[in-house]
Write a structure and sequence with these properties.
The chain is of the alpha+beta class. The protein has 3 helices and 7 strands; from the N terminus they run H-E-H-E-E-E-E-E-E-H. It has 2 domains: 1-34; 36-143, OB fold (Dihydrolipoamide Acetyltransferase, E2P) (Beta Barrel), CATH 2.40.50. It has helices at residues 3-31, 40-45, 138-143; strands at residues 36-38, 59-66, 72-73, 79-85, 91-97, 109-118, 121-129. The protein has a 5-stranded mixed beta barrel. The radius of gyration is 23 Å and the shape is elongated.
Length: 159
């Protein structure tokens, strides 16, 4: 092999190795930012045929309905603790510190993002509530298909 071909081959190998390294680093960085979506039943029973469950410390998103009667607010600060269900038997507890969305109510669909503290307790960093009577986030709608929503009663409202 002549010197010119050796030089071209070595340059091509360096470029390929460099691109491979950059691709690997990008994929590694993105892996840390992926938040998997779960329903309460999927968190308890696991996902897929292998029944893979999230591990403590893992970031995730969870969606479902706020269990009526489960919202407990702290009197000293903005901490709120409530339970989420998908009406398939799964119930998980969410802990959130902050101001909840105006549309947050018991019996309403929500999506929360946070970190798993234990098998059924999530420390939420963000809580999203649906914005009108007809809308539900696609992940939640798929997870709780067929569940009838109950409208909260306000004061003397007889509807």
């Amino acid at each position: 092999m002549n010197p010119r071909r050796k030089k071209r081959l070595s340059i091509a190998l360096v470029i390929i190795l460099g691109l491979g390294s950059v691709t690997g680093l990008v994929l590694y960085a993105l892996k840390q930012n992926i938040d998997l979506f779960y329903t309460p039943t999927q968190m308890i029973e696991g996902l897929g045929e292998e029944k893979v469950r999230p591990i403590a410390g893992q970031r995730l998103r969870i969606g479902g309905l706020v269990l009526p009667g489960s919202v407990k607010r702290s009197s000293e600060d903005l901490k709120v603790r409530f339970q989420l269900t998908d009406n398939k038997g799964g119930i998980v507890t969410l802990e959130y510190e902050g101001i909840l969305p105006d549309l947050f109510r018991e019996g309403q669909g929500i999506v929360a993002q946070g970190t798993l503290k234990s098998a059924t307790v999530i420390s939420a960093t963000e809580v999203l509530a649906k914005h009108d009577e007809e809308y539900m986030p696609p992940e939640v709608a798929e997870a709780v298909k067929g569940i009838q929503h109950t409208k909260p009663k306000y004061g003397n409202d007889t509807k």
